[in-house]
């Protein structure tokens, strides 16, 4: 083995990767089975409380809830699977044999890290395509206490948006034949400094070109205090229909691209988006946390098993992994509150524990 060779031999690499994957998904299956049973047991009473619900609705709940549990506990499974694999390799003196052949700690971990990257990619695709849809459906079902989910006709009330410096308020937004119809329209005309110049109000409004035709309209001029009837007029050019129809968004129920588009629409509407931006970037950093787990659990791979400290090393590895999840949830909560910038809330725990994992690995190898 040369120092420039990044991986062990092909046979050893495939052996370690296969052992790691089997243990990860075995741990995941055990966790999902137990947690789903307990969750369904606690929730089935609420499901069956609605008249007409029965076994079919319970199974429907299980089918919607299982993807959420898988997404939540896959990183934990990668951590536990890595620690079990490391402990087995250490117990059987296979790590000692690899180090005796001239491999460094990073070379020994390389097959596990690459496998974890594959698991992270699979986790992102699973979250983006399956978990988001299941979460959206389950949240809508819970809001109606497990009754049949009503059809969303797109009606919105008390909606505010922005057109450059102007503020726009609408009492009622309706979808009529695929067209957005506004009722109770108010436009606050402001100059570049934000000072109010006039207020335009109208009872009705519809899309007209790239603006909105409102009628019968009245304009109140702040400087002169004069109220005048202006009839039918086109205002708010450049304001899109989705800026009126977009309600508060649920990040868990949207894919990465959908959430990114909705965050952009909210920005255009002048609404706060910091918490949503943190959730957006966490859709990347969350699955990528699987790559950290083999590094944080690597402390269980090194050291002589006969020294009696293998169990302590495994506990330290689990402690590092679980501490990461605590810090990650804390940072995301701080981001939702606006205390942390979105990028910091999403990526700081990952970078911090990447450095901690490297420091522990180098110290352990020494």
Describe the structure.
This protein is an alpha+beta fold and 366 residues long. The chain has nine helices and six strands. The chain has helices at residues 10-49, 55-91, 94-100, 105-143, 242-245, 256-268, 274-296, 310-337, 342-365; strands at 156-163, 166-176, 179-190, 196-208, 211-221, 227-235. Strands 1-2-3-4-5-6 form a six-stranded antiparallel β-sheet. Helix 6 (256-268) packs antiparallel against helix 7, helix 7 runs parallel beside helix 9 (342-365) and helix 8 runs antiparallel to helix 9 (342-365). The longest helix has 40 residues, at 10-49. The two termini are 20 Å apart. The mean pLDDT is 86.
Please give the structural blueprint.
Blueprint: H1 10-49, H2 55-91, H3 94-100, H4 105-143, E1 156-163, E2 166-176, E3 179-190, E4 196-208, E5 211-221, E6 227-235, H5 242-245, H6 256-268, H7 274-296, H8 310-337, H9 342-365
Antiparallel strand pairs: 1-2, 2-3, 3-4, 4-5, 5-6
Helix pairs in contact: 1-2, 1-4, 2-4, 2-7, 2-8, 4-7, 6-7, 7-8, 7-9, 8-9
